Amino acid sequence: MYVPDKVVTNHDLAKIVDTSDEWIVERTGIRERRFSAPEQASSDLALIAAQRALDMAGIGPEDIDQIVVATTSPDRYLPSCACTVQAKLGATRAAAFDIYAACTGFIYGLSVARGAIGTGMADTVLVIGVEQLSRIMDFKDRNTCVLFGDGAGAAVLRPCTPGDGIRAVSIHSDGMIGDLLEIPSGGSARPASHETVDRREHYIRMKGKELFKVAVRGMDDSLRKALAEAGLTPADLELVIPHQANLRIIDAVRERTGLPPERVIVNIDRYGNTSSASIPITLDEVVRAGRLKPGDHVGFVAFGGGITWGASVATWTLPVPAGANGTGRAHVAAEVPRT
Ligand code: ACO
Questions:
Q1: What is the mean pLDDT of the chain?
Q2: Which of 220, 273, 216, 278 lies closest to 245 in space, CA to CA?
């Protein structure tokens, strides 16, 4: 994982919009988030996370067959963020492409990697979740600008024996309710113009209340589906790593699955919602803290713009990494069964 150095607290935001630390903590669980430096692009954050993941996996850029970048905040529309990361990383053999599934992006990325590795198309897939949401938030809209942060996480996925590694992925979408979370302009439907800029249509707009209900239902449902596909129940999960959108959403999903709080990982207080980066960032902290050992079952579950939602269940195969230092700045390697 990599998060920028700049810490922005709720008190900092209360100086620019009409909000308060109490409101943000009570409604979301967020206390602070990280914002990138002006000279950093999403690919720069992704690059650092990727290099750390490669170090941990003990491989070099030339070993990568595919680079999959999940992001809603790419450097630019063309070329893809993944191709920019490929160039910066020097991964000359890799095919590189972006996945555009908002906060569910990392789980969509796992599904792509699982397919590519499981069918023998690829041996080594680098899946990255990266966001610079600070660049696409409206700092005049208190409904959204208190929620999001910047960061990146990366995982190297490689083949393993069936029954281990990524055992199930359950992904879903409902485009009919896509306008619950949107950036209205800047695409082909409404290209950028002076008017769209004046109307602040290049920033995230959100119907938070409606999204909340969809999120809880979708996360609970997809986690159950992934568990059923893996032949497991919630009680079999040592850990669940949920997308960090709102502590109340995480709590509601936890209550529905009946899991005790210590098995459901939360770090939203420190990073806010980093969209597709939140699951790999959290996984990295968990691995770095030595909380996953071989044979443990771990669930990943998310929802986001699209609307998209999904879950994955894995049986962890990797030992606690050498050099685990508890700093929270680490990297992740995972494996995928080949059938
Ligand atoms: N500070 C103070 N007051 C605020 C703020 C703020 N930052 N934001 C909203 N309010 C006010 C509202 O204006 C409203 O005031 P009113 O009653 O006078 O109109 C009041 O607080 C309540 O607002 P609600 O929207 O009802 O608050 P709610 O309890 O639903 O919490 C929240 C809002 C946190 C956004 C919640 O609905 C939520 O988390 N929804 C899910 C959103 C989400 O996770 N989005 C990320 C999607 S992931 C992705 O793909 C990027």
A1: 94
A2: 273
